Amino acid sequence: MTTLDDLPIRDDLRGRSPYGAPQLDVPVRLNTNENSYPVPEPVVEAIGKAVAAELRDLNRYPDRDAVALRADLAAYLGHGLTVDHVWAANGSNEIQQQLLQAFGGPGRTALGFTPAYSMHPLLALGSGTGWVAADRDADFGLTAADAVAQVRRHRPDVVFLCSPNNPTGTALDPSVVAAVLDEAPGMVVVDEAYAEFARPGTVSALAVLPGHPRLVVTRTMSKAFGFAGGRLGYLAADPAVVAAVQLVRLPYHLSALTQAAARAALAHRDALLGTVTAIMEQRDRIVAELRARGHRVADSDANFVLFAVDGDQGAAWRTLLDAGVLVRDVGLPGWLRVTAGTPAETDAFLSAMEKLS
Fold first, then answer.
1. Furthest CA-CA distance within the chain
2. I want to staple 167 with a disulfide (CB 3.0 to 4.6 A). Which of 91, 101, 295, 330 is the partner?
3. 233-237 and 86-89 beta bridge pairing
4. What 8-state DSSP symbol labels residue 275?
5. Is-cis flag, bond preceding 106, omega within 30?
6. Which H, E and C letters describe 156-179, residue by residue?
7. CB under 8 Å to 3, separation ≥6 — which residues?
8. What is the pTM of this model?
9. Beta pairing, strands 233-237 & 215-220
10. DSSP 199
11. From CA 252, how far away is CA 259, in angstroms rounded?
12. pLDDT at res. 271
């Protein structure tokens, strides 16, 4: 049987593992930060009609630049953004890959403050961009002074900031973004995949886009919109950034069906985003209950919670799995991450956690 070692694969890819999380058949799956609530039936019908309207013309290529979809996304974001400020792709992962293709690449470096989203270094690897794993403090926090010091030391071409951060869940203080923008020699990408779940008063980096042509804010419809299967991510930035990523995007990268489904979802955003408050309530319930039981828990502005366990987190993960609850082992010694879902899923998780006492 042929293996990767038998193929002329790139040396820097040898021994690597693809990104992924276990997809196991268990009663309660809370490991991938999906929205636990199904798409409401009226929205299902609207998306179905929108997709059906495209079927007869599938012999033709879709709108290569997805202009109508980008206009809808700009209207959703507000902040005075227009179609020229927005770009869309198959998930925010593809958006970030395109950014690294345009602004990273061989001989250039990207920097992220770990622990953070584990796809960022993999995207850097795939685009031939060097990766620098900068540090957070012992409580996973990041101050403006620490961030600036590390950017100054490494002088990266691309800086990734996650707000809220995955896997810790905490949003950045706006001063961190401002300080990094002032210091970074290249692009600053603020990954806001979970922004809709942020606690009241949290400031989005969208507010400081004007006057900062090297700032990019990436978002996704996978989480708050419950559109993970639709695969739609997007960025907001100066129009020059949108022009730059168009140099590296694949032709017709967004299918007509994806564009139609996403536009229908955006048109019904009030119904889809109606689950956000319910999910935030479950997140806060998990935080409060685990802290009451004596667990260390990271503050969360996302739809998940990072919590500490005694001893080996792998053994704790297995104990929860044996109880029918799948959470995520993100590789942080002594910590696990759980997605906030429905009240019933929270009940099951908290009940399973009693087995760790």
1. 60
2. 330
3. antiparallel
4. G
5. no
6. CCEEEEECCCCCCCCCCCHHHHHH
7. none
8. 0.95
9. antiparallel
10. P
11. 11
12. 96
Average pLDDT score, the chain: 96
Other CB atoms within 10 A of residue 116 CB: 22
| Rounded Cα–Cα distance for residues 118 and 7 (Å) | 26
pLDDT in tens, 54-72: 999 999 999 999 999 999 9
- The continuous run of DSSP H or E covering 88 comes out as strand 86-89
Q: Round the CA-based radius of gyration of the chain to a whole number and report it.
A: 21
The token duo for 88 is 């869309």
DSSP for 310-324? Answer: SS-HHHHHHHHHHTT
Q: Kindly state the tokens that stand for 134.
A: 């900068």
H helical segments located in 84-164: 91-103, 119-126, 144-154
Question: What span, in angstroms and rounded, lies between the C-alpha atoms of 21 and 329?
Answer: 9
Torsional class of 136: left (φ above 0), alpha (ψ -120 to 50), beta (otherwise): beta
Distance CA 212, CA 174 (A): 14
188's enclosing H/E stretch is strand 187-191
DSSP 227-244: -GGG--EEEEE-HHHHHH
Q: How far is CA 252 from each of CA 246, 249, 287, 356, rounded to the nearest angstrom? A: 11, 9, 43, 50
Tokens of 237: 């930035």
Torsion sign over Cα 111, 115, 116, 118: positive
